[in-house]
Amino acid sequence: MRATLIYGAGDVRVENVPDPVIKQPTDALVRITTACVCGSDLHPYHSMSPADGPARIGHEFIGVVEDTGAEVSNVRKGDLVVAPFAFSDGTCAFCREGLHTSCVHGGFWANGDIDGGQGEAARVPLADGTLVKLPVGADSALIPSLLTLSDVFGTGYHAAVKGGVNPRTTVTVIGDGAVGLLAVLSAKRLGAEQIILMGRHQDRTDLGRTFGASDVVAERGEEGIAKVRELTGGQGTHVVLEAVGHMPAYEQAYGVVRPGGTISRVGVPQYEQAPIGFGSLFGGNITLTGGPAPARAYIEELLPDVLEGRLEPGKVFDRTVDLDSVPDGYRAMDSREALKVLIKP
Questions:
Q1: Is 3.20.20.190 the CATH classification of the domain at 156-290?
Q2: Of all residues in the chain, what percent carry a pLDDT higher than 70?
Q3: CATH of region 2-151+294-344
Q4: How does pLDDT run across 25-77, given as a tens digit for each residue?
Q5: Residue 165 · residue 192 · CB < 8 Å
Q6: Ordered DSSP codes for 207-263
Q7: Are 172 and 317 a contacting pair, CB within 8 Å?
Q8: Which of 25, 63, 247, 314 could bond 70 through an S-S bridge, CB–CB 3.0 to 4.6 Å?
Q9: Residue of 21, 55, 86, 118 lying closest to 299 (CA atoms)
């Protein structure tokens, strides 16, 4: 079959790889009908050493079940399913607590012998705990929005939930990528009325306003911090949802958070050390939370809003490519010509 591999920074190729096969009785084989490129895929696209390649890539997909192992009972051949970006058994102590990304038997796509999501098919370990059947056809107009449940909508929602967003909280969202925009949508869903989006790309921030942003701040650094504080009577916001992962975004986060507030990070941090002392977090009684979203925990909660048309998170997709054009999709996202690229294998 054909699949996407990354050979190093800036070097993405689509090549023939072995067809997936059932290895465990808990596996399913899924023919991928829709996938996408994630903003987090750009991290290895920027920095991966050729010594670490070639490697499979991609972690968001919808597809049709083609075969199942003997112990799979929740899905069967012909079902259209969505796969969250981490596979999990759904039964361990962490899964039962809604923390599927820490499943004791689980893992992530495109690691070791695990298939990536940007290909024609994938072996899905722990299929009963991982896959969610979708009550639509593969050609449904809802597919882009349903695909966001695999990662970016769940990640934006995780940021808002961990941050404690509710109708009484003011919110700043840092980052106008797909996760940041869906953090705006999530904060609105949870009842926030003042949602400040920090981003400087007007086409994206316009979409953010559509999703529920009440204000947009294009300035960065100290200028951006001052603007947010001006919009909040000098106090800052109760919650900051940081959807970038770079140090300047973290510094903005503790610059705009209100005393007693919460910073919720879901942008994959590209740093290990960060200020947490008196002047950043401690002095203001600031809570720092977030982490990789257990997207599987949120699918049943968010699915009805998508199926019934109340929310349209799929608006973050602004370009569609076939599998052979995936390298062009990476270039488009890297150059900010595209917000998020949909893949039709």
A1: no
A2: 100
A3: 3.90.180.10
A4: 999 999 999 999 999 999 999 999 999 989 999 999 999 999 999 999 999 99
A5: yes
A6: HHHHHT-SEEE---HHHHHHHHHHHTTTS-EEEEEE-S-SHHHHHHHHHHEEEEEEE
A7: no
A8: 25
A9: 86
